[in-house]
Amino acid sequence: MPIFENRDSYLFVKITEPYSLKWAFIFLREFAETCNREHLEKALIDGLNLEGPIRIWDRYQVGEEFARVVGPKIKVAFVAKRDLIDLTMENVVVNRSGRFKVFHEMESALKWLEASE
Predict the structure, then answer these.
(1) At what angle do helices 21-38 and 56-69 cross, to 10 degrees?
(2) CB neighbour burial string for 31-69, b if at least 16 within 10 angstroms, e if fewer
């Protein structure tokens, strides 16, 4: 299970599981429920433990599910290793009015979120 931590102005999430499409869909529902329950509209997801490759079709499907489940209310910064970053998911989410951006370092992600550690 991922680690969810309310840091007052945002939800911090550390992904600890290996990637699978099924797991990603379950995670998105749990993530959205946690943000809503905690009344948080910003989140930082630490995906630095994720290993690739992740298929482009998976990235597209996860982006669609993110837009559907999370929606435009929650601003999300996702941090991943540079070699895992591909903007497919980000583009899918943003094109569906979501607020989602991918980063390779925490500092840039926190700045974009306008959140402090």
Answers:
(1) 20
(2) bbebbeeeebebbbbbbeebeeebeeebbebbbebbbee
The range of the structural domain enclosing residue 29 comes to: 3-113
What's the per-residue H, E or C state across 72-94? CCCEEEEECCHHHCCCHHHHHHH
- The burial class, CB within 10 Å (0-12 / 13-18 / 19+), for 84 is middle
Return d(Cα 4, Cα 57) in angstroms, integer.
27
CA 37 to mean position of chain CA atoms: 17
> Do 10 and 115 form a contact (C-beta atoms < 8 A)?
yes
What is the identity of the amino acid at 2? P
Residue the block writes with tokens 């749990």 = 30
pLDDT digits (tens, 9 = 90+) for 4-28: 999 999 999 999 999 999 999 999 9
Provide the domain count of the chain: 1
pTM for the whole thing?
A: 0.94
CATH number of the domain enclosing 79: 3.30.750.24
